[in-house]
Design goal:
The longest helix is centred in the middle third of the chain and has 26 residues. Strands 1, 2, 3, 4, 5 and 6 form a six-stranded antiparallel β-sheet that branches. This protein is an alpha+beta fold. The chain has two domains: about 200 residues, Roll (Nuclear Transport Factor 2, Chain: A); about 60 residues. It is about 35% helix and about 20% strand.
């Protein structure tokens, strides 16, 4: 029994060490939601700010039958949140095959090293194997990142690119790319700060001026949940650390721009008495998200989607 208790404690400790931190309550509540036109279910190209793939949309009003111009796309079975690797697939298959073979011959999953623990030991070994393979995969991908769309820190002071078409806006028969100007990047940064401020103030009218009706409906749901729980989240002192363009294109009379942004903020959630129950009222935290903006021809940009990075 003591061995099983020790093993369970190890599983819990491993899960706590490798699991993501507490869910941030900023605008969007750390979820992926909204619409990107025909690109809604296609993975945005990687950038220097967000070198790994974005999470697929969890909530969207765009039908999944929308045209898919990018491959691999979120709607396709091949998409698994990261580029496929034949080497990694072979490694995973070989390790799991060897483990199952060992079990069939009575030597435990990994040659009997932890076979005495039974099924719980098997689960722990599977968890360790998963995280080990994931770490190796990230190590390999870190050494050969995919071609980036845009450059580093193009929101940073004086680092914005000049006008001209940016890579990743379209291709392979997809919608045509468009040029993004320094003034557009300034709007993106202002929207980042303005939306967080309106979110903190529970100002739905303010959000309606900066986001699509779809995004405002999601924000309203999340704010209502806060009210129901008797808490209130505030996001203050928002500072853009870096940002770069993933893709920009036009379709059906609208322009779209998907931008990776890394920003810092003070993110604190308080209860009815003003006591901080999540986050910190004094320490900055950093987040990297992929925001998509849309505008009518000649109009102003508004937010149409937020996606989390992996």
């Amino acid at each position: 029994m003591s061995k099983i208790q020790g093993l369970l404690a190890g599983v819990v400790a491993l899960s706590m060490a490798l699991a993501p931190g507490l869910a941030e309550a900023r605008a969007g509540s750390s979820s992926s939601m909204g619409s990107r036109g025909s690109m809604t279910y296609s993975a945005p190209p990687a950038t220097n700010t967000a070198p790994y793939s974005a999470s697929p949309m969890q909530r969207s009003m765009t039908p999944q039958s929308a045209p898919n111009y990018s491959s691999p796309g979120y709607g396709s079975p091949a998409y698994q949140g990261a580029p496929r690797s034949g080497f990694m697939s072979g490694l995973m298959g070989g390790l799991i095959g060897a483990g199952i073979g060992g079990m069939l011959f009575g030597h435990g999953f990994m040659g009997g090293g932890m076979g005495g623990f039974g099924f719980i030991g098997f689960l722990l070994q599977m968890a360790l194997l998963y995280f080990a393979v994931r770490w190796v995969f990230r190590l390999i991908m870190g050494g050969r990142r995919p071609a980036m769309a845009g450059g580093p820190n193009i929101f940073a002071r004086g680092g914005m690119p000049g006008p001209g078409p940016m890579p990743g806006g379209g291709g392979g028969g997809g919608p045509p790319p468009i040029a993004i100007s320094p003034g557009d990047y300034q709007q993106f940064e202002q929207l980042l700060q303005g939306i967080q401020a309106a979110w903190s103030a529970h100002d739905l009218n303010g959000l309606q001026a900066m986001a699509t009706p779809e995004m405002v409906s999601y924000f309203a749901d999340q704010l209502s949940e806060q009210v129901s729980r008797g808490v209130r989240n505030s996001v203050t002192d928002v500072r853009l650390v870096s940002g770069d363009l993933s893709q920009a294109w036009t379709e059906q009379g609208r322009d779209y721009a998907t931008v990776a942004m890394k920003f810092s903020m003070i993110d604190a959630t308080r209860d009815g008495s003003g006591r901080v129950v999540d986050g910190s009222a004094s320490e900055h935290v950093t987040a990297t998200e992929i925001w998509t903006f849309v505008r009518s021809r000649g109009g102003h940009w508004i937010l149409s989607a937020i996606q989390q990075t992996r």
